[in-house]
Design a protein that fits this description.
The chain is α/β, with parallel strands linked by helices. The chain has 14 helices and 15 strands. The chain has an 8-stranded mixed beta sheet, with helices on both faces. Strands 10-9-13-14-15 form a 5-stranded parallel beta sheet, with helices on one face. Strands 11-12 form a two-stranded antiparallel ribbon. The site of nicotinamide-adenine-dinucleotide (NAD) has 27 residues, from helix 5.
């Protein structure tokens, strides 16, 4: 209790030293936010290239300006490092490491385990450890707790608080999204909540660690399933000759009971295609089958194939052989205005087209080159002459800073999977 009071005082006076493990999409904005609020923050990342970029003011995440991070580094309040010893100097340690899938599509929590072992090897007594990485319910209690206990018996605090950041979202930035906190005990939960109140207005404390773990997975599974539903409606609407975008726009005028989701070329990113598999795996262990999740994944994974089929049909209607066609994919990041390629549906589309031996190129202002999944390509120039050379231009990711007017004016055929063009143009086909 006395120790909790000490940390509480330190948080209140901004004297608590915070370490963030993992300076990625989640950890870096969080580290900078705590620094901005007056805390000394160590950013520990074992990727020396990222740490070196930060120290040089080079940005690697679209939402974080390199120059801004550099200013905080120069003031000595944000210290990016590859040295895990900083964890031993910290009162609070927040884990923001990846939680991907293994090849066999089951949770890979090895990054969490490694990070926890690193903490256990150097942490001082009474440290507050918080996990922010998305994971299945039970990870904190069954995986993290035993590792920390072995090193420090009972003398630490443990909480889970899922990161809910939406990269590229200018309206809901980190400090405008309420936090959820669950603790191994009441003191841990209350300490973590007090910490997050320094950077966000609303913090919800839940009754158990597992509740907080499940909240995040429910949020992302909700998106997965609604996207699948709207994709299914898009396929049907096309068959029936109905404009799905208009249907959604008008359905959204209902002031209650409906939330608009939009169809697209498939799901991508670190969250939507991944997190539901974490809970599906956990459910299986409990002898429970997640039918909705399995079906939604199946529907969404079909979308890249559907996009290619539609391209084939459009070209056929124009008497152009699919195999001899020249296709340009616009936007390959997994979503608008981010540089992130993880699980991007555009990669599946490129892969299918390459397998079919189609002449395909891409343009993405945020991703100048691509070297992934056996695809080695450079972004082409988007100009009048180039556009005229393609038989079909497919808009897959609708980044803001793309000249869509130019694309419409000089392309023979545009397949718009994101409803970029709301007007009627003879050369534009919508999803
Ligand atoms: N990206 C998102 O939009 C988002 C949103 C909410 C939640 N999340 C969740 O947050 C977690 C982190 O995601 P991210 O997108 O920030 O990942 P990321 O890959 O961008 O960053 C993770 C960082 O952790 C570092 N790292 C890994 N293991 C380490 C270790 N043992 N010691 C030190 N550094 C280590 C990596 O080098 C990397 O820089 C995941 O669980 C993800 O599901 C992500």
């Amino acid at each position: 209790m006395i120790e909790a009071r000490k940390i509480r005082e330190k948080i209140k006076n901004k004297k608590a030293v915070i370490s963030i493990i993992g300076l990625g999409y989640v950890g870096l904005p969080l580290a900078l936010e705590f620094t901005r609020k007056g805390f000394l923050v160590y950013g520990y990342d074992n990727n020396s290239r990222r740490v070196s970029k930060l120290k040089r003011g080079v940005e690697y995440i679209s939402d974080v300006k390199g120059e801004f991070a550099l200013q905080l580094i120069k003031r000595g309040r944000f210290v990016p490092t590859t040295d895990k010893k900083v964890l031993g100097k910290s009162d609070i340690i927040i884990i923001c490491v990846p939680t991907p899938l293994r090849k066999v599509k089951i949770p890979d929590i090895s990054y969490i385990i490694i990070a926890t072992k690193e903490i256990a090897s150097v942490m001082k007594q009474n440290t507050l450890v918080i996990l922010e990485s998305t994971t299945y319910p039970g990870t904190c209690r069954e995986v993290i707790l035993p590792i920390l206990k072995k090193a420090r018996q009972e003398k630490f605090f443990l909480a889970f608080s899922p990161e809910r950041i939406d990269p590229g979202n200018k309206r809901y930035t980190l400090n405008r999204i309420p936090k959820v906190v669950g603790g191994i005990d009441n003191i841990s939960a209350r300490l973590a909540a007090q910490l997050y109140r320094q950077i966000v207005k609303r913090v919800h404390i839940v009754s158990a660690l597992e509740t907080a773990e499940m909240v995040k997975i429910l949020e992302n599974t909700f998106r997965l399933i609604n996207i699948a539903l709207v994709n299914e409606f898009a396929l049907l609407a096309h068959k029936l000759g109905i404009n799905i975008w208009e249907v959604i726009k008008v359905a959204a005028t209902k002031p209650f009971g409906f939330m608009p989701f939009y169809p697209g070329p498939g799901i991508g990113g670190h969250c939507i295609p991944v997190d539901p598999l974490y809970i599906a795996w956990r459910a299986k262990r409990a002898g429970f089958k997640t039918k909705m999740i399995d079906l939604a994944l199946q529907l969404n994974r079909y979308m890249p194939k559907y996009i290619v089929q539609r391209i084939k049909l459009m070209l056929k209607k124009k008497n152009i052989s699919f195999k001899k066609a020249k296709i340009l994919v616009i936007g390959i990041a997994y979503k608008k205005d981010v540089k992130d390629l993880r699980e991007s549906a555009a990669l599946d589309i490129l892969e299918i087209l390459k397998k079919e031996k189609v002449n395909v190129a891409y343009y993405d202002p945020l991703i100048p080159y691509l070297n992934i999944k056996g695809l080695k390509m450079y972004s082409v120039k988007l100009d009048r002459a180039n556009l005229k050379g393609y038989d079909c231009v497919v808009i897959v990711t609708d980044h803001s800073n793309i000249d869509y007017k130019l694309i419409q004016q000089y392309s023979k055929l545009v397949f718009d999977t994101r409803n970029v063009y709301s007007g009627n143009f003879s050369n534009v086909r919508r999803l």
